[in-house]
Amino acid sequence: MTLKRSFWDKCRENNKRRIWVWAVSMIAHLIMYPGVTLVYMSRIHSRNLSGLYGTKEIYRRMLADAASDALGFHTNDRVVIMLFVLAAVIALQGFGWLHDRQKLDLYKSVPVREQERFMVIYCNSVLIWLIPYAISLVLGLLTAAAYGAVSGMVVGSCIMAFVLNMFYFLVNLNLFILVIMLTGNRIMACLGFAFASVLGEWLYWVGGVLQLTFFDTRCRDFSREELEPSILFEYANGTYSWARKFGSQPAQFISGIAPVLIKWALCAAVLGILAYLCYRKRPAEMAGRTIAYPVIWPFLKGVIVVSGTLFTAYLMYRWSEENTAITFLTLIGAAVLFSCILEAVYEFDIRAVAKHLVSSAASLSVSLVIFCLFWFDVFGYDSYIPDQDQIESAVVAFYDYTQDYWEYTEAEGTDPDPAGTGYETKSRLSPFEYAQEHMYLTDTDAVTALAQKGIEQCWQRKHAKADVSTEKPGSYRYVSILYRLKNGREVSRCYNVDLLDPDMARIIDAVIGTKEYRAGVYMPAATPQCLTDEDTRLYYTNGSMQAEMDPADVAELYQAWDADMEGYDYSFASANDMCGKIMIKNTMGTVTLPVYESFQNTVSLLSDKGAYYPLQPNLADIESLAVTNNNYEETGSAAGYVTNSYAVAEADYAYQDGWYGNRAVTVVYDDPAQIGRIMETAYPDDFYQMWRQKDPDDPSYDYLDENYTITIAFKPDIDYPYKKVQDTFSLKHGQIPDFVKKDTAYRE
Amino acid sequence: MIEIHNLTKSFEEIKAVDGVSVTIKDHTVFGLIGTNGAGKSTVLRMVCGVLKPDGGTVAIDGAPVYDNAEVKKKLFFIADDPYFFSDSNAKAMESYYSSIYENFNSGEFYRYLDNFNLDKNRKISTYSKGMKKQLALLLGICAHTRYLLCDETFDGLDPVMRQGIKSIFAKEIEENGLTPVIASHNLRELEDICDHVGLLHKGGVLLSKDLEDMKSNIQKVQSVFASEEDARKAEKDMNIMKVERRGSLYTYTVRASREEVIARFAAVNTVFFEVLPLSLEEIFISETEVVGYDIKKIILG
């Protein structure tokens, strides 16, 4: 009798022993896809019945977005976690027999080729995920279709999600199979899988905290420069960040995501091949042991001991306030402790703590060397500036300045909010990412001069043991520089630069007074998408009032403003106050353009359009001013600022003893003369004076005084063509009227 | 034929098998005897291809067995603690093995199950230890492989079952040329089953011989001689393995055929002599004492 069985017959036979995994996979997918889809659809349907969405068009869009969210690419953490756990369960159930001597005796002695056995179990493992997913997806689409929520975009999104999920599942499946091959029992396999999944992230994180601790110029603002060391986290974080990085258009997105998919596919292939090779070479007698290949133990132990030791030493370095002796003792103690613990786990015997002393000593030595490399900046990380001839272009982003002009926004009222978690953020890029994409500074002399100055100041502060937060408060600005090198690499550094440095004005002028710089900060206003976006809204504000303009004026206004910006640089900005802001809002975000009184083209055009309004409100329109003096000098810091001053604005005088020893005093003024005097020195809170930086010791210092806040109460019967948007102002330091100081002084 | 040559296997610092060389001829019942830890299971696991030898070779009909599915078709391994699929019954195991072994005879299997009063639908997890061993043996027999490797499989089987299995073995050897290889730590359990015995101790083979050869080549003789001189004459040129004397009664364990012994003692002046049969235990005691081991400690405790 000759037995001829096909590959699929063997798969079927193998599946007889995997029924419960099939059931788990099926139930999980049914809940995750048709189940969640039904919940989303019915929720939106009932909201629509209660008239929440207004029009049928919005209702349809809500349904489509929800279907996409439940079934397609906008899948989220729950799917990533499910895929991760399923991969683990399927792999362990399929290949876990390698950890069991009883099963090994059976499977290894029967006449089945090892290659064939591996392929049967592996293919079944993939099918156990794939078939329930496919069935659930179809059921989910049918559910969505019943509500009329299926469109081409939804199907496309499902296909994209399918591809991503498949590669992600394969990476995790292959990783776990490899871990099973390398370990000897199930507990170690699960620990190993968890460890392998977070290893990249952990090492990257430990390296990152050491860099941030010891390297003053370490920069993490340009996220696109950052590596993604763990596919687990890459997918968990990826769905939203990819949409922002690659764009929402299918073609754009596919070309953007392709390298990620290629990376995952390669990763899955390499892990799969390694898993197979280890399967073929795995000694059966290692079932039940900790590690199946003792040769890898010293390396594995080294990675855990070194990274754990470095992290512990970093913690002690911080807690002991950079105490050298404690840090070194911690390094030695942590390395010894971790080595002993690992040896006890490896041998499953507490008496084995002193085994493999050579690898323990090597781990300690490597930990010491690495820590010292960071501590003493042996490779000159902080002093690194690429050679001029290596730099192709650069990006310079002043942290506060950039953030003020390009911010995230919410697409109000357009989000289906299927999960009920709040409005969906439609923003695509952070200011740094935008700058990274659009700013190409070719005058690298100016950039490297800025970097050089940053390094010099960093060293001076280091030697003087000075702290940016206490030394000349407010005079430092955080600047991030990204160098694009000719070899294709991108390198970034961050510096805290002192704006009071005599050379700084010249250096910063050379950087920000260029069209290339503006392209990386303001260009969204002039992009074709911005100009044609039907959701674009155009506003002008003087800090307290806001006029909405015709969006059709965007291009003309931008042109006028751009012409005025030709004379704009740091010297100009630090000597002048903004008188208003143009705000262009659309689905991409909000672009804010500063307007100064000397911007003749802009002011003239705004006036022609009836949108210009002077910085100062009309005094005749003000009914009263509530001036609050927070008296920080009494509490010692701004931390004491906990106020309910607004609640007492109607009283002549009030005093509150707040949670943190609050000494805020609020006085309400309704005398026109006093109001006029106060308003002379008032400036809108919202107009953050990024570049208005002068020496506090200089008598002409007019930076906003953080002690004072003014709340304007306008007369109720006045009629403005503007919408009131802001009613809090601050007072300029050094120009505060004496009567205000006296009235609002803290009294016991 | 299974040829084991200079086989070695270590588990870290422990040398489990050290230079074992044995040849297992076809159509015999081979017993592998040894104490716990002697290396019996390790040898069997290498013979069936579960473990890879560190050194030496295992060949079945001249072909290596490790990672060789074609060769493994010729053998069936019953481990000391055989694995059955969780929540399975005899039918499920039959289904699996019949999909693996080309010659698995399902009809015969179910007949044997009936004969041994094993319920094919009952969950194996509810079987007693002895019932599980019976089931494993029946699966192995019905796979109709040429070699059936049993690791401590007969330990714990009641005499009736042992007799039943022994009958099946005899039938299979005769009809299908089965070669069972049975490892056990209990010499008495193998005495009535094995044709050939290999004795393992501390990873090595102390001896490997046919039981019949051993029995025919070792004789126990009790004799009372007419004089001391007659005793010296009888002993001269005889391969005496052991001699005991109680008064005038001499008891010899002699390596020679029965005929040779009778001829030699007939030629000298004896008051009385008698050639007695040796039990397997006695043969082993004698054989191993010759090479310096105390078999009572090794096998019998």
SSE inventory with pairings:
The complex is a heterodimer of chains A (748) and B (301).
Chain A: H1 7-15, H2 19-49, H3 56-71, H4 77-95, H5 101-109, H6 114-146, H7 152-182, H8 186-214, H9 231-246, H10 250-281, H11 297-319, H12 324-347, H13 357-375, E1 391-398, H14 399-405, E2 406-407, H15 431-438, H16 444-464, E3 476-485, E4 490-498, H17 504-512, H18 515-521, H19 528-532, E5 537-541, E6 545-549, H20 554-564, H21 570-575, E7 578-586, E8 589-596, H22 600-608, E9 622-629, H23 632-635, E10 653-655, E11 665-669, H24 672-680, E12 682-684, E13 704-714, E14 723-724, E15 728-732, H25 738-743
Antiparallel strand pairs in A: 1-3, 2-8, 3-4, 5-6, 5-7, 6-14, 7-8, 9-11, 9-13, 10-11, 12-15, 13-15
Helix pairs in contact in A: 1-6, 2-3, 2-4, 2-6, 3-6, 3-7, 4-6, 4-7, 4-9, 6-7, 7-8, 7-10, 8-11, 9-10, 11-12, 11-13, 12-13, 16-17, 20-22
Chain B: E1 2-11, E2 14-24, E3 30-34, H1 40-47, E4 55-60, E5 63-64, H2 69-72, E6 75-78, H3 90-100, H4 106-115, H5 129-142, E7 147-151, H6 159-176, E8 179-184, H7 187-191, E9 196-201, E10 204-210, H8 211-217, E11 218-225, H9 228-235, E12 240-246, E13 249-255, H10 258-266, E14 270-276, H11 280-290, H12 295-300
Parallel strand pairs in B: 3-8, 3-9, 6-7, 7-8
Antiparallel strand pairs in B: 1-2, 1-4, 4-5, 9-10, 11-13, 11-14, 12-13
Helix pairs in contact in B: 4-5
Task: Characterize the structure shown.
The complex is a heterodimer of chains A (748) and B (301). Chain A is 53% helix and 12% strand. With 748 residues, chain A is an alpha+beta fold. Chain A has four domains: 13-286, no CATH class; 294-375, no CATH class; 523-615, no CATH class; 619-743, no CATH class. A six-stranded antiparallel beta sheet of chain A has the order 2-8-7-5-6-14. A six-stranded antiparallel beta sheet of chain A has the order 10-11-9-13-15-12. In chain A, strands 1-3-4 form a three-stranded antiparallel beta sheet, with helices on both faces. In chain A, strand 5 and strand 6 form a beta hairpin. Chain A is globular and about 100 Å long. Residues 403-427 and 636-660 of chain A have low confidence and may be disordered. Chain B is an alpha/beta fold. In chain B, the strands form three sheets. In chain B, strands 6-7-8-3-9-10 form a six-stranded mixed beta sheet, with helices on both faces. Chain B has a four-stranded antiparallel beta sheet with strand order 2-1-4-5, with helices on one face. A four-stranded antiparallel beta sheet of chain B has the order 12-13-11-14, sandwiched between helices. In chain B, helix 4 (106-115) runs antiparallel to helix 5 (129-142). The longest helix of chain B is centred in the middle third of the chain and has 18 residues, at 159-176. The chains are: A alpha+beta (748), B alpha/beta (301). At the A-B interface, helix 1 and helix 5 of A face helix 2, strand 6 and helix 3 of B.
